[in-house]
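Q: I'm building a small set of examples for a reading group on sequence design. Run inverse folding on the following structure and report the sequence directly after it, with nothing in between.
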């Protein structure tokens, strides 16, 4: 249920990794693969309203799967009758780490019906000495198209031999 949300966050982190890679590669290990097994979830409090199809995790919310870890103070979820998560919003300052790439944003919203992930309020991606900041980053999960607005950053350039 949270696997798609984690995959979307990984897509953002993979985007940052591509832009901040220190040397070009013809072939790279996929960053979206975070290993088999369950998603570990921890929070101080969980509230579920089955009738409304909503859930809220609050207080030091953390998700982990393989090399991926995501932390935020609050995670709101909307689910259907199955129950499958259809929408999620992390707020209060979201951070994600995977294989040396760190992503931060005040909030992230994931619409699984529209297949859109949006980070808002000042997004920052870092890897090594490279970094990218944007006011908003939108990822179309179906096409893997990434759109960043009001972008600035520093991307290391490899030395020529």
């Amino acid at each position: 249920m949270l696997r798609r949300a984690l995959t979307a966050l990984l897509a953002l982190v993979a985007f940052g990794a591509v832009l901040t890679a220190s040397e070009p590669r013809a072939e790279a290990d996929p960053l979206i693969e975070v290993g088999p097994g369950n998603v570990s979830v921890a929070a101080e409090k969980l509230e579920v309203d089955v009738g409304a199809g909503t859930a809220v995790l609050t207080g030091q919310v953390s998700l982990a799967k393989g090399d991926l870890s995501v932390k935020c103070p609050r995670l709101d979820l909307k689910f259907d009758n199955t129950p499958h998560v259809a929408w999620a919003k992390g707020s209060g300052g979201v951070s994600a780490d995977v294989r040396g790439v760190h992503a931060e944003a005040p909030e992230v919203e994931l619409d699984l019906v529209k297949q859109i992930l949006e980070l808002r309020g000042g997004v920052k991606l870092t890897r090594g000495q490279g970094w990218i900041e944007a006011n908003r980053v939108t990822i179309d999960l179906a096409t893997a198209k990434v759109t960043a607005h009001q972008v600035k950053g520093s991307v290391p350039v490899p030395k020529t031999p």
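The longest strand covers residues 85-98.
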